[in-house]
Structures are given as C-alpha cells and as structure tokens.
Amino acid sequence: MPKVSFTVSARTAKLIGQENFATAEGAIVELVKNGYDADAKNCIIIFQNHGEFAENPTIYIVDNGIGMTSEVIKANWMKIGTDDKLQNYLSEGGRVKTGAKGIGRFALDRLGLSSKMSTVSKKPIEGSIWKVEWSDFDQLGIAIHEVEADLDNDNDLDLKAELQAQFSSFSSISKLLDEVDFYSGTILKIDSLKDNWDEDSIKSLFDNLEVLIPPKEQPEFAVHLFSTNEPLEFGQVNSAYYDDYDYKVAAKYIGGAEHELEVTITRNELDKQVLEEEYGEVFEMDLMKSTPYNLTTFKKESFTLKKKLKELPGFSSNVDEELIDQIGEFDFTFYFLKRAIDRNDKKRFPYKDISSANRRSWLDKFGGVKIFRDDFRVRPYGEDGQDWLDLGKRQAKSPGGPGQKVGGYRIGPDQIAGTVSISRIANASFQDKSGREGIQENDAFDLFKNILVEVIAIFERDRNIVMFCLAELAKKRFKDEEDKRRAQEEANKILEEAGSNETGESDNSESRSSGTRGRSTEREKLFARTTKMFEQEIEERDEEIRFLRGLASVGLIISSFAHELQSLKARLTPRTDFLIKEMKKYISKEDLAAVDQEENPFYMVQLIKEEDLKLRHWLEYSLSTLKRDKRTRTNINIGEYFEKFQATWSNALSQRRVRITRKGSKDASNVMRAFEVDLDAIFNNLLSNSLTALKQCKGNYDREVIIDWKAKDDSIQITFTDNGCGLATEYQSEPQRIFEYNESSKRDRKGNKIGTGMGLYIVNLVIEDYNEASIKLIPVKQGFSVEITLPRRKKNK
After folding, report:
1. How far is the C-alpha of 540 from the C-alpha of 571, rounded, in Å?
2. DSSP strand E in 569-641: where?
3. Which of 45, 121, 660, 776 is most deeply buried (CB count within 10 A of its CB)?
4. E strands, 232-375, where?
5. What does the alpha-carbon distance between residue 751 and residue 285 come to, in Å, rounded to a whole number?
6. Nearest CA-CA partner of 346 in 416, 270, 450, 239
C-alpha cells in the first residue's frame, strides 16, 4: 500500500503559535525568556515612539546572550516546534531553559507584521541578519515549507554600534549600552505593530516585568525598558525585593525517601527589646516556655524546623506515596505583612512601627503567592488577587484574630506575598496548559497545593501562639479594654440572635447555647445596635486619620527640604538663559536652520526652560503652603487673599488657557479670622477640580473660573463657578455625594478609579470646622458652582 505524508498549511502553523500568546505583553515576555535561555546577562526593551515614530513605532528587544549562527537559525529557529530546548534543557551557563515547545518565534508575529533579527554568535563568531514578513503565512493554499525568510551573513555586524547609532540622542539608553558588553547577542526589531502601545500600556508592561523574575537582591538577569517618547520615565526593572515584613518563612522541600521539609521562620513583627523588658511575663506561660517560643529563640534572628511530610497536620498514611514522589524538590518563600496596626492592639502587643501606606502599595503590586519555573513567572498564579490556594475560603471558615484562641487563626490572601520555585527537571509532573496560562490540574498538583498550605499553617500556629499569650497577658493588665471587647462580642451575639429570629430560626440557637440568656429585650437590642454604630464610626474616623496623616507626612518631607528647594527655585529659570548665552558664543541659531527641530540644541534648551517654569510654579505653590504664618489664625482680607491666590496659580492657568475673574472688593467688611492654610485647602482643591473639568471639555471656548464674594450680615458669601463639564453623570441624581469620602469620577481608559476621592471631602471637613460655615451646590446650566459661607471677624463692642 503506498504511503502519503502529512502536510501543514502555513496559516495553521501560524494560528497554533498565536494561540499561545493571547496578549502582546505575553509575547514580549516570551522573547525576554529567549534572552535568558541564551545566557544573556542583560535584556533591553526599547519602544521607539518619539517624533517621526509616534504614528508608526518600532519595538527593539535586545540581549547579550550567545547569539545564533546561521546553521542554528536554519536548524532550530526556522524549525517550528523544535525539540532542541527539550533535549538540551541546560544552557551553556548552566541555566535550565524556560522554553520547550519550539514556537516562541511566533511571539514576533503577535507583535507586528514585519520582523528583523540581527545576531552575533559567541562560538564561532559569526554575524547573521534574518528577516520575515508574517503576512506571507496568510497566503491561501500554501504549505508551511513554502514560506521563506531572508537570511544573510554579515561578519562585520556590530550590535553595539548599530544600537548606539540609532539611540545616541537618548542619554539613558546610550549610557546603558556603554556599560553592557555586546561581544555576542541578538537584536529583534519589530515593525508595523498590531497593538496601540500608549504610555499606559508600556507602564503596564513595565509593572508586569517587575513580577516576571523572582525577588532577589542581585538578579543575574537584568531587564531594562525604555520609551523614547518618555526617555526618563522607565529604566531598570526591579524585582519585588522587600525588607519590611512581619514574618518571613522560607521552606525547602528536599524530598528523598523520607520526604523531608525544612522550614526557616524569621520573626520581625515585635520589638524584641520591648518584649523582653515590658512583656517578659509572657515567657512564664506554659505555651511560651519551650523552643521555639522561649526568649532565647526570640532573640535569634530566625530558627529552623525540620519535618517529614507525614508529620504535617492532615498528612496521614492515607496520602499516596507514589503521588508524593511525583512532587519533586521545590522552594517556597513568603512574607506576611499586616496592612495596618489597630489602635487597641498597639497597647496589647509590642509591635514595631510600620508604614501602612508603603505596605498597602507594595502588597497591591506584589502581593499573592506566585509560581516561578526556572526563575520565570508562571501566570496567572497570584496575579491581580488570584487566590489559587483558597486562603480566603480558609479564613472565612475561621475568621478569628491571632490573639483570640489557639488554633483559630488563618492568614488572609491580601496579607501575603510569596514565591514558589519549581523546575522543569525536578517537577516534571507540573506541565503547562496548552495556552501557557497555568499548570495542568492533576492529583500531583493538588497535593502540591496542600503541602504549601500546610507550610503556611506552620507560620499561622507560630504567630497564633505568640499573639494569644500576649493577649492573655493584656487581659490581666487592661481590664477596661477587655470589658470593651466583651461588650462588642455580646453586641454581636444579640444582633445575630435578632437576625436569626427574624428569619424564623429556632430560639435554641448556637449563640444562646454558648452563654446568651433567652430572647433579648428591645433595650438590649438598642444598646447592641448603638455599640455597632459607634464601632463603625470609629473605624471610619481611624481610616480618615490614617490617610490625613499620610498627607501630612508628605508636607513634612517637603518642609524639611524647604531651604534647598528655595535655592533650586531661584536657579531654575536663569540656568537655561545662561546656557543659551554661552551657546551663542560658539554657534548661532541661523547656523542650525537646516537641522531638524528635535535635534536642534536651541529647541531642546527651550523645552527644558518650559519644564523649569512648570517646576518653579509647583515649588512656589508648595513652599507658600508651608509658610509658618499660614498655620496661624489671623485676620484675612478675602479680597487680598484671592489676589494672591490668582497670582500663585497664574503660570498654571496661562498654560491651560484658563482665566480667573474676581468679583468682589477688598474693603474692611470682607475680613474674617481664620487659618490661611484652611482657605488654601478649600480653594486649591476647588480650582484643581475645575482645571480637570475644563480640560475634559473639548472645543475652543473661553475657559473661565469666576470667584465672587460679598459681606452679608455676620458672614462672607463666596461663590466659586467654572464653565467646565460640570458634575459627572453618576452624581447628577445625588450631587451631595461629591463631598463624601473616597468619591471620585476620575478614571482611566479601562474604568479603574484613579482619583483619590479626597479633594472635596477635605473641603467639606475644613468648612465644618468653622462655626456657622456652610457649603452648598448651586444649579447652573453649564459647569459647576458652589456657594461657601464663612463667618466674618467679629468686631469688639
């Protein structure tokens, strides 16, 4: 019987490759991995999107790896689905190669229609240039072998010189190229891009690259990203290394016949000196007398536990030994970071001070438990709050705090940042899904997840015992606090009972059997509801105080550098004038008439001057806000105040083509006694919102802000009006919501809220602090208008 061969259409091969790169970011990550597999020390991603390239940008992905000879290009790079990395899984430098499917080159097709590769191999030294038009794969009726790429040898190819010539006018890129060795390596150039790479998209890529590589102080593979349109905006991609944590747990599964697990715990939550000197009684409790809870162990930086898997809770002899053998060696390191310290807990526990704002920011960016295979991220584990270990479900079943009872504490998924390190070699059972998004779910992977959870449980028990003992000590010391806590618990029980009765449940509820007497009276329910109401109000006020404290800290930082900033402000504008004066000694503007504007040094200096003016305006505004006399209650003439207010904002207003019209007098009737910084808080926030609203209104028209004031009885009435876009649609039905905490209509193009929601909230807070003061919205056909009433200075009788 005659034999026939299979064949694959070019389009089918292309589609198979494209399915593995759902996003452009994923395609770039794949090409970065190729640089890692080539033993590169550096990978540089450059978006050429300035000036003439703005409409048709180009992406460069550069590495200084071992490169490829023309023979390697023919045998491996041009072979779709090559098994080279599967067979030769170790690089020359000893790295385990991250790729294995042999379709990574289709990442180029995902990014753009045209690709060019310039490569210089290490052994032997040989230069090659490879080009392809990906549209060739879309021709109807042709097989894969009929699609061809161009390949030329160029032994004079100099990668560094080529890049320097292209980016010599960008100092940040040029400086890096000078520092990096390019004896060998590869330049991938992608044209006719398929995606719109605006600055938001590039920033998103930069953020994702930060979690591509596991946290290390000195990474052996450095990644840089640049955008020529914003050359100073990005730079080296730093991994998620962090040293402000409460606990660090490093687990290493050694495996072997005994299935050994080594866990090193570093406690960093409590002030050890204060713990010993002021809470020393806690070490006399039975739970704290032995290792690892005694004082001697606490004084050490860390301690190590060695366990066998069968010694972990839940790992009985029923666990399949053959399944355990499929797991293979792995490392699991995670950090526990509480996001804030409760005011009452600060009294009970000797916590170290923390920066809640820094922690929240870091956890929002790097939080979650992520998997890394051979030093590269496996998505989507731990991404955007993805809780693949179901820590949230565990916590929901046992929501108690660490100090309430032994055995009831569970960590929340938003309090942990961790990395699991696996390998293609040691963990062969963990295979990628076909779309490269995740690992195939099987029995071995389920067991693996359970082992990780049990490692977390070791930490939970350690913290639980320590905090429980400290809480028991606090009960003896702070009886008032304990009474308050018991009252809150009793209020919760009463309200739970009331809710159960309303749904028709039996009176023999769990809450009653645990100590609550019969049906609660209406009086008890009233006290319970009021207790919960006060508790909620205190929580909201504490959150507000924490936010305002963060804003105050920014002001203190600026204040500490006030003298230096004043000196900088004075030098900003003259320095560019001096530079132009010196340049004219050697060259005139006429000499450069034929030079492109972007390359003309006089034009560059003019741009610098404009930026300096913006910076000077910001410094003037910031430093004027910090003046001591603004923080003292004085007699303020409203007319004179708005005159200075307009002058302070003049530069910013002229740049935005916005005019302020003042309507009111400076006579003695318009005087009030107030803190000038309070007036700044009101009108700076109002004007900032107006500028945003005016910017959002398209078309050419006179942009105007009108400030009108007049004395009336014992008050001064101030009307603040702009002709911008007015209230956002979401606030039309309930306009007063704009003065509430965390309310903001500012969102990015993906609908994510980007405004702080604090501007008008602070305005309202400040006005509430003054007796007989008020603020109300005034309906207008176009724009936004508010009327503010402030008390006048009372004359002496």
Report:
1. 45
2. 633-637
3. 45
4. 235-236, 247-255, 260-267, 302-308, 330-336, 368-373
5. 53
6. 270
Give Cα 393 distance to the centre of its chain: 25
Question: How many whole angstroms separate alpha carbon 187 and alpha carbon 180?
Answer: 14
Residue by residue, DSSP assigns 172-223 as HHHHHHHHS--SSEEEEEEEEESS---HHHHHHHHHHHHTTS---SS-SSEE
CA proximity to 337, closest of 365, 312, 313: 365
What's the rounded Cα separation, in Å, for the pair 706 and 191?
Answer: 50
Closest by CA position to 382, among listed 396, 397, 392, 395: 392
Q: In degrees to the nearest 10, what's the CA dihedral of 654, 658, 660, 661? A: 120
Closest Cα to residue 38, out of 240, 182, 153, 151? 182
**Pair 109, 18: CB distance under 8 Å:** yes
Residues, the chain: 797
- Type of residue at 538: I
Report whether pLDDT(327) > 70.
Answer: yes
Report the C-alpha gap between 37 and 10 in whole angstroms. 27
User: Regarding predicted confidence, which is higher, 320 or 364?
Assistant: 364
- CA nearest neighbour of 630 among 614, 619, 644, 647: 644
Mode of pairing for the β-strands spanning 703-712 and 715-722: antiparallel
Six token digits for residue 713: 């009885």
What residues pair up with 121 in beta bridges, in sequence order? 126
What integer pLDDT is reported at residue 131 of this predicted model?
A: 94
d(CA 200, CA 642): 37
Type of residue at 670: N
Mean pLDDT of the chain: 81
Quick count: other Cβ atoms within 10 Å of Cβ 584? Answer: 11
Listed in sequence order, the DSSP H helices in 183-271 are 199-210
Structure tokens, 769: 């602090």
Number of neighbours of residue 579 by Cβ within 10 angstroms: 15
Q: Give the neighbor-by-neighbor strand order of the sheet with 658-663.
A: 658-663, 703-712, 715-722, 784-791, 774-777
> How far is it, in rounded angstroms, from Cα 702 to Cα 725?
13
Tokens for 474, please give them: 């606090």
Helices within 254-320 (DSSP H only): 272-278, 295-299
Decide if 421 contacts 330 (C-beta within 8 A): yes
Q: pTM, whole model, 2 decimals?
A: 0.55
389's CB contacts (< 8 A; 6+ apart) are 369, 413, 449, 452, 453, 456
According to DSSP, residue 286 is labeled G
Question: Could you report the per-residue pLDDT of 659-685, keeping only the tens digit for each?
Answer: 999 999 988 888 988 878 788 889 988
Query: Which residue, chain included where needed, has tokens 């606030």?
Result: 731
- Buried residues in 517-526 as b, exposed as e (16+ CB within 10 A): eeebeeebbe
Among 95-99, 496-500, 749-753, which range has the highest average pLDDT? 496-500
Q: 589-615, pLDDT tens digit by residue?
A: 888 888 887 788 888 888 788 777 767
d(CA 410, CA 342): 18
Q: Tell me which of 527 and 556 has the higher pLDDT.
A: 527
Chain segment 366-388, per-residue pLDDT in tens: 889 989 887 777 878 887 778 99
The answer to whether the CB of 334 falls within 8 A of the CB of 416 is yes
Structure token digits, residue 145: 């072998």
Q: In what order do the strands lie in the sheet with 376-378?
A: 302-308, 260-267, 247-255, 330-336, 416-422, 368-373, 376-378
Is 343 a residue whose pLDDT tops 50? yes
